[in-house]
Amino acid sequence: MSQRMSMWMRFGQPLEAVIDDYEPIFDGWQAGGVEAMLVGRLIFADSEGTPMNTAAFDPDPTIYADLGVEPPPASSETLPDKRRQLVATLNDAKARGMQIYVFCPDAGQGPGGTGHRLADETSLAARVARVKDVMEAFPMVDGGVLDGPELGYEITPGHRSNIFEDLTENLRQPAADLGFDYDALVQAQGRFEHRLHHLEPADIDLRADGGFFGIFELFDSDPDLAAWFAFRRALLSTYYRRQHELLEKVMSRPVRIGVGSRLPRFTPLNGYDLSAMGHQYPFILPKLYFFHRGFDGFYGTIGRYLQTLVEWNPSLTDAHAMKVVEGLFGICLPWIRSRLDLDLGFPPDAFGEFVATETKRMLAAVPTPDRVVPWVEAGREPHRGDPISAGDLHRILSAARDVGLERFLYHSHTHLSEGEWAVLSSLCGEPWLDGKPGYVPPDGMPWESHGKRS
Questions:
Q1: Strand partners, 37
Q2: How many CA atoms within 13 Å lie on the side-chain side of 74?
């Protein structure tokens, strides 16, 4: 029999869906193989029913004063019953032997400084102070998961992670401090964007399949372009090193803080150095998200690149645009030569190849396999992607397990479907089937989507 995997489960947004009836939910989770939970963000609906509007605890001003920053304002209402219920929920989980982590424990931090978020010391201190505040307010918690900050990975105009919108003027001095010429970086970024608007099929056929040297030549062997990507890595790596050092310095008890990223395939574009992060932090959480459309999914990003490149270059087919994408990201997806192919999903053997390769890369970034806890999601919510079938979810996780992945974090209980739970429990614990008494996954939609659809 294949080795059982360890499952972590996120709940929150809203918190109330679990804390109001936590005991049977935890019974079901533990039977299915959940060994740790990720809770949060730590915000309740207010007394008027407005979701995500009232903090679950009051800030401790002394923590912020010690770090030289201002605390966030306390909530206008305290909701003592909900606060007691949250504490009871977490204490029950701890008594069961489950690990407890807080999602985005830096959320709700006080005002930072005026500099760039990745280089401003006051902003960093404000984030770290909030993390410490959460860990002090909830002593039963083992640690937290930070979801960013990061740099962009998309080229589509208007996308929230557009790479052409994150080289702002307030990075001029930080660039110089890291040994880079800010003006040269801005000009290289502009040339890269211009070149992406002026691609010809013949140039792509000649160069895009030529590995690093060929794709670099496709973009005119621009040395400042290479410097721009080196700067992105230096900026983000320096931020995470500084954050780690400050966390280690200020925490009054041992806590485990993990940091998230996208698939290893995208991290060089993001600026992440997975190996540095995987050795600094107790664990890393790359996103095993393969859904189409929405945001943060692998197919979704590939599809947006194809759409954007063809819109910018009417002479290109999807197949030529795909060759550029494969060259930029070092991927080989021979089953994708048009955007329609993305809607047809993954062929069965792709999971044993691509998913396995990405998982091996995650594992190569850390000293031991237990320090990789990738996010897993079927796509529908909250990322609003096309749904991954239960069968594909099983193939994704099986391929990752077979190359050494031991644990993963499922996102999340709120919109967990019965088919997904049947797959997850079969891989991690006591298999769940329709009609089994006790816990039934809610298969709901978070408040964000209700608001969006109305």
A1: 9, 100
A2: 9
